[in-house]
Amino acid sequence: MATQARTRPTGINRFETLAWQYMRWSGVLLVPLVLGHLAIMHIINSVYLIDIDFVAARWSLLGWRIYDAGLLWFAGLHGLNGLRYVIDDYFPNPDLRRGLKVVALIVFAFIFVLGSVALIGGVRQP
Q1: Which of 10, 19, 37, 70 is the most exposed place for a label (fewest CB within 10 A)?
Q2: 47-85 burial string, b = 16+ CB within 10 Å, else e?
Q3: Domain boundaries along the sequence of the chain
Q4: Which residue has the higher pLDDT, 124 or 111?
Q5: pLDDT tens-place string over residues 68-103
């Protein structure tokens, strides 16, 4: 009885596997982050009371900055990856797909940088 050596499948894209896993894990992590944000910003505190002073007081603690950074990065990358899936599904032209992905990456990079600078720099009161 002869045995055959198992070979690794050649068509597996490691990036796509990691992107698929990231969507699942970030979705699980986003649930408590988003529910916490909803509870703090919309249920416990009135949205009419949230102003620059509220944000400055909240961001004076490092924990809140880390919480908001996690929400920004997990939600942003989750959304960017989802947009990448949508572009792959609905645009058959490879050049158009590549262009749309580049534009999406530039827009999201700008938003990530702007949000991260705001979180790191904080709110300065005169």
Answers
A1: 10
A2: eeeeeeeeeeebbeeeeebebbeebbebbbbbebeebbe
A3: 19-121
A4: 111
A5: 999 999 999 999 999 999 999 999 999 999 999 999
Alpha-carbon distances, residue 63 vs 11, 13, 53, 110, 125 (angstroms): 43, 37, 17, 24, 20
Compute the residue count for the chain.
126
